[in-house]
Structure formats: structure tokens, C-alpha cells
Specification:
The protein has two domains: 133 residues, no CATH class; 82 residues, Phosphorylase Kinase, domain 1 (2-Layer Sandwich). Helix content is 54%, strand content 9%. Strands 1, 2, 3 and 4 form a four-stranded antiparallel β-sheet that branches. Helix 2 packs parallel to helix 4. It is elongated, with a radius of gyration of 21 Å.
Length: 231
């Protein structure tokens, strides 16, 4: 039932977006006549609405918006500019959920973490980071995945693929744009980013490459306190 309501909510947003795009493209909807300036104002207002809507839909769609903000080849400039705001507009999740995630992922090992700053250093679509101190006295930074993310991601990615197929078949919006390929690439990137072990391996290899360079310092991965959802 949760999947049904989630899908319904996403499709409602998609259909509303398509309806607004159609409406804004009709000359008769511009009282006093259509001008480029008026068209641009409407486009910017729609982009602002889209940003707020993506924030409300959650992590997968925030990440999608961030990816689209790097695609000026397929989106209007006003949209790219507004979507870029998603890079720093993600609200944090409660510290109590951070503690629950650590206990669930690390089990008894989380006792090695003796102090955690409740105020996050940063919050993103997939995770947020906190300063912490280990029993050994070592200062570290914890990256903790947002709770319930994987279930929503997999559901949202299915709907994204359906939306991409719809856009691809549209005679106007599908022309010159490979929405299906974009959805597949988005799915590939997002599912890999859900597994922090992959990021940990990349970070460790990167550190190893510069280990001998005194001018570059790269944090080490604390493997015993890392998992698929904690780094």
C-alpha cells in the first residue's frame, strides 16, 4: 500500500509538471500578449516550484535534480540555475536517527565511538556527516546514510524509468533527448552511491596514491567502523 501511494504521489507531480509546461507554452494564456520576458518569468517560477517539489519528494529526486543541474544541454538555463540550489538545500535528519543507524549497522562496535557532535557538519541527499571521537582519542568524521533510503530509492527509480519512457515517446519533449538512457545512468549511479563500502574502497585507493606526498593529506578509512551505510 505504501508503494501505491508513493507512486501515485510521484505521478501526480509528473502530470502537474507536464500540464504546467503545456499551459506555459500556449500564447492565449498570456494576458496582453506573449513576450520572451514573460515566458522567462514563467519558466523561472516553474523551476522554483520544481526545486521545492523535489525537496519534498526526498533523496532520490533531490539527487536526480542535482544530476540534471549539470545538463544545460537538455534543460533551460533558468532550470539549471534553480536546480543547482539543491546542492545545499537538503535538510538534516534527526540526531536520534543517526544514533539508531550506528547501533544497527555497527552493533557492539559503536561503543568505540565515545563522542558525537549532534550538529551535522553537512547534510546531503544520501547522508549527513558528524564530527566524532573514538575511545582511542582519535578524531574522525562519520558519514551516516539517511534511514529508509534503500526502499524508497528502488521504488522511486522504477517510477523514474516509467516517466522517462513516457517522455521519450512524446513528439516534442523526446526529440533530441535520450530520457531512457539518462534514467538508466541515474539508476546506476544512485544504487552504487547507496553502498558506502564502494566509496570507502575508492577513498583508500586514492589515499594510497598520495601516501608519499607530504603536501597532500587524505583521511584514512576506519574499516572496523564502516559498513554499507556508515563510513
Amino acid at each position: 500500500m505504501r508503494s501505491f501511494w508513493r507512486s501515485l504521489r510521484i505521478w501526480r507531480v509528473v502530470l502537474l509538471l507536464l500540464a504546467r509546461l503545456w499551459w506555459d507554452g500556449q500564447a492565449f494564456t498570456y494576458i496582453g500578449g506573449i513576450t520572451e520576458q514573460r515566458r522567462q518569468r514563467r519558466s523561472q517560477r516553474l523551476a522554483q516550484w520544481l526545486v521545492e517539489t523535489l525537496l519534498a519528494l526526498g533523496s532520490a529526486f533531490i539527487k536526480l535534480g542535482q544530476l540534471l543541474s549539470a545538463r544545460p544541454d537538455i534543460l533551460p538555463a533558468a532550470w539549471v540555475e534553480e536546480l543547482a540550489r539543491l546542492q545545499d538545500r537538503v535538510p538534516p535528519f534527526p540526531f536520534s536517527q543517526v544514533e539508531q543507524r550506528l547501533e544497527k549497522e555497527l552493533g557492539p562496535r559503536c561503543q568505540e565511538i565515545v563522542e558525537i557532535d549532534a550538529e551535522p557538519l553537512g547534510s546531503a541527499s544520501l547522508a549527513q556527516v558528524h564530527r566524532a571521537r573514538l575511545r582511542s582519542g582519535r578524531d574522525v568524521v562519520l558519514k551516516v546514510q539517511r534511514p529508509g533510503l534503500e526502499f524508497l530509492f528502488r521504488l522511486d527509480l522504477v517510477v523514474m524509468a516509467q516517466v522517462a519512457a513516457l517522455l521519450q515517446r512524446h513528439p516534442s519533449w523526446g526529440r533530441g533527448r535520450d530520457w531512457v538512457a539518462m534514467a538508466k545512468e541515474c539508476q546506476r549511479v544512485l544504487l552504487r552511491e547507496l553502498d558506502f563500502r564502494i566509496e570507502a574502497e575508492h577513498a583508500a585507493r586514492f589515499r594510497q596514491q598520495f601516501l608519499e606526498d607530504p603536501q597532500i593529506r587524505i583521511p584514512a578509512v576506519v574499516w572496523e567502523l564502516s559498513s554499507q551505510r556508515v563510513l
